[in-house]
Design goal:
Number of helices: 5
Strand content: 5-15%
Distance between the termini: 26 Å
Helix content: 40-55%
Largest sheet: 5 strands, antiparallel
Strand order of the largest sheet: 1-2-3-4-5
Number of strands: 5
Number of domains: 1
């Protein structure tokens, strides 16, 4: 997953510069998320509740790992806190489950808007304040 993220970043260009992906490889939980999600359809109902409870925190950690870029002298980072963000994701996931997935497109857009509002540019050593996207 690290190689894919680094490849995508290195093949993106804006303003004549390419971003650099700063995420570290070898994080077993990152690769493990995909494998654990694949087995979800084969789990017993009691296990699905556990998957529901750990899905949002794992997705938060995975996406936070992805948003770890540097472009020129600017770091692109999330200004989020773990528990409020996980609570938001769990709420969107619960609404999606309760509405039998009809809410999924709205949840997707709300999640994008939520995290886009928490994404910031931070300048390196020059002391500039972060500029919100």
């Amino acid at each position: 997953m690290r190689k894919i993220a680094a490849y995508l970043a290195s093949h993106t260009e804006y303003g004549g510069a390419r971003p650099e992906f700063l995420g570290k490889g070898g994080a077993g939980w990152v690769e493990g998320i995909g494998r654990r999600c694949e087995c979800a359809p084969h789990l017993h109902a009691d296990h699905l509740r556990l998957v529901f409870l750990i899905f949002a925190p794992l997705m938060y950690l995975l996406y936070r790992w992805y948003v770890n870029l540097r472009w020129k002298d600017v770091a692109i980072v999330w200004k989020t806190e773990f528990w409020p963000s996980v609570g938001f994701l769990m709420g969107q996931l619960a609404l999606t489950v309760v509405t039998l997935s009809f809410y999924w497109p709205v949840a997707f857009v709300k999640c994008l808007a939520y995290f886009a509002g928490k994404t910031a540019f931070e300048r390196g050593a020059d002391g500039d304040r972060p500029a919100r996207l």
